[in-house]
């Protein structure tokens, strides 16, 4: 019934990612369209009830931490088979320099 967001993308899939300080917690049965959200101006806009609800539901993060720990332990038990892809030019430059050095010998 609950959704936890640790990274937010307010402009959709193609928008920039926002790493939040406190994870967002949404009860999908009470708010299926996720419209309540985090108040942008804090309590100045009358959003004290959100923070009140949030403090009573924060105990749920203990269970989320346990699930994240289980997921992280799978990376220890089953490490990645290969190095992750690099999408910058450093790897390409290194290959060019290595090929240039090999040709000059």
Would you give an account of this structure?
The termini are far apart. The model has no long low-confidence stretch (mean pLDDT 80). This protein has helices at residues 48-57, 61-77, 90-104; strands at residues 2-8, 18-27. By secondary structure, it is α+β, with helices and mostly antiparallel strands. It has one domain (2-104). It is built from three helices and two strands, in the order ββααα. The protein has a two-stranded antiparallel sheet with strand order 1-2.
Q: What can be said about the biggest beta sheet?
A: 2 strands, antiparallel
Question: Which regions contain 5 or more consecutive residues with pLDDT less than 50?
Answer: none
What count of structural domains?
A: 1
What characteristic shape results from the CA principal axes? Answer: elongated
| Cα gyration radius (Å) | 22 Å
């Amino acid at each position: 019934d609950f959704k936890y967001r640790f990274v937010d993308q307010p402009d959709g899939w193609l928008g920039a990612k926002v790493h939040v300080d406190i994870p967002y917690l949404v009860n999908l049965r009470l708010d299926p369209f996720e419209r309540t959200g985090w108040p942008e101006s804090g309590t100045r806009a009358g959003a004290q009830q959100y923070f009140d609800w949030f403090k009573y539901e924060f105990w749920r993060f203990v269970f989320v931490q346990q699930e994240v720990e289980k997921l992280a332990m799978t990376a220890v038990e089953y490490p990645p088979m290969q190095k992750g892809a690099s999408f910058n030019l450093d790897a390409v430059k290194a290959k060019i320099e290595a090929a240039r050095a090999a040709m000059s010998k």
